[in-house]
Amino acid sequence: MLRSFLILVVSCLLLGGCLPSPYYQKQEPIPQNEWNYNFRPKFKFDISDTTAKYLPYFIIQHSQAYPYCNLWMWMYIKTPGDSLIKKERVNVLLADPSGKWLGRGLGAIYEERVFLSLGDSVQFNRKGTYEISLEQNMRINPLPEVLHVGFKLDMIKAN
């Protein structure tokens, strides 16, 4: 019994070590777990390979007491060399129509990684530092029971 358990643990560790790491990932804690309009987490990442394609994800951790099934937010995107900031409104679904949370749960905390549909994938056509800021855009301010928000970027390897 103990031997089987140890084999299972070692196998999980070895398989977990084989998973590719994201190109970029960062999460920001939400002060007092209440996301205020004026708190805009910013994520900066460098792109050096303009031929690669990327998959962007929004990450959110919330409690099961989060009062809505979705999250509306503004996403601000600043590209290298531009003074203009592109602004997009994004709706993130957090629960299905029956109210079941879509993210992974551990106790009363849920985390969801949502693909940001900016096309099938994103190809950054300029080298340099990109900035993405997030602003909650719900009707309630501050938005309760949001613990962390983040941004993740996976690189698609060319064959």
Summary of the model, kept short:
Helix content is 9%, strand content 47%. With 159 residues, it is mainly β.
Tally of contiguous helical segments: 1
| Count of separate structural domains | 1
Strand order of the largest sheet: 1-11-4-8-7
* The CATH architecture: Sandwich
**Residue runs with pLDDT of under 50 for 5 or more positions:** 2-17
Produce the secondary structure layout.
Elements: H1 2-16, E1 24-29, E2 34-35, E3 42-47, E4 53-63, E5 70-78, E6 86-93, E7 104-106, E8 109-115, E9 128-136, E10 143-144, E11 146-156
Q: What does this protein structure show overall?
A:
The protein is mainly beta and 159 residues long. It has a single domain, classed as Jelly Rolls. 9% of the residues lie in helices and 47% in strands. The chain has one helix and eleven strands. The chain has one helix spanning 2-16, and strands spanning 24-29, 34-35, 42-47, 53-63, 70-78, 86-93, 104-106, 109-115, 128-136, 143-144, 146-156. The strands form three sheets. It has a five-stranded antiparallel sheet, with no helix packed on it. A hairpin with a 2-residue loop joins β7 (104-106) and β8. The N and C termini lie far apart (43 Å). The relative contact order is 0.34. Mean pLDDT is 86; it is low at 2-17.
Salient structural properties:
159 residues; mainly beta; Jelly Rolls; five-stranded antiparallel sheet; 1 helix; 47% strand; disordered N terminus
